[in-house]
């Protein structure tokens, strides 16, 4: 009788993925990135282990949304004090803190459990084309680029 093999967290190999957000739709990009952070692209994926990879997203300021969301989508935050509700629309948040848009979208698509925080730490957001993580990427042959 064969036994099901269970991967060990020490055996997990983490790779670096480079994603360009230029002219991509926010939700589609966030779902793709959340799958990479969870490790769903790996053959030995199990939901209770953190098997995901590192993801670097370039050009976060050039993300797009469809329809009228640029004017209508609202982000809320609360300070915890009475009357402390703040709101900002997508267009203004994109000008002030473009990284925050993708960070919130990806965080919302990850499972709400204790693995969410370590997965979010492997997400790197870069404004512009400059990539300071380029020495981390490995090509198919296992050599650094």
Structure, described:
The structure is a single chain. The protein has a domain at 15-64 and 99-133: Ribosomal Protein L13p, Chain: A (Alpha-Beta Complex), CATH 3.90.1180.10. It is of the alpha/beta class. It has 5 helices and 5 strands. The mean pLDDT is 91. The protein is 29% helix and 16% strand. The strands form 2 sheets. Strands 1-2-5 form a 3-stranded parallel beta sheet. The protein is globular, with a radius of gyration of 18 Å. The termini are far apart.
Topology:
Layout lengths: L15 E5 L5 H13 L15 E5 L10 H4 L1 E5 L6 E5 H7 L1 H12 L6 H6 L1 E3 L20
Parallel strand pairs: 1-2, 2-5
Antiparallel strand pairs: 3-4
What descriptors fit this protein?
145 residues, alpha/beta, Ribosomal Protein L13p, Chain: A, 3-stranded parallel sheet, two-stranded antiparallel sheet, globular
Based on the structure, what is the oligomeric state of the protein chains? single chain
How far apart the termini lie comes to 44 Å
Structural class: alpha/beta
Which stretches are poorly predicted, pLDDT < 50 over at least 5 residues?
none
The share of residues in extended strands comes to 15-25%
**Which sheet architecture does the biggest sheet show?**
3 strands, parallel
Question: Roughly how many Å is the radius of gyration?
Answer: 18 Å
CATH topology of the domain at 15-64 and 99-133: Ribosomal Protein L13p, Chain: A
Strand order of the largest sheet: 1-2-5
The rough form would be described as globular
Helix-strand string? EHEHEEHHHE
Q: State the total count of DSSP E strands.
A: 5
What is the mean predicted local confidence, pLDDT?
A: 91
Given this structure, which CATH class of the domain at 15-64 and 99-133 is correct? Alpha Beta
Number of helices: 5
Helix content: 25-40%
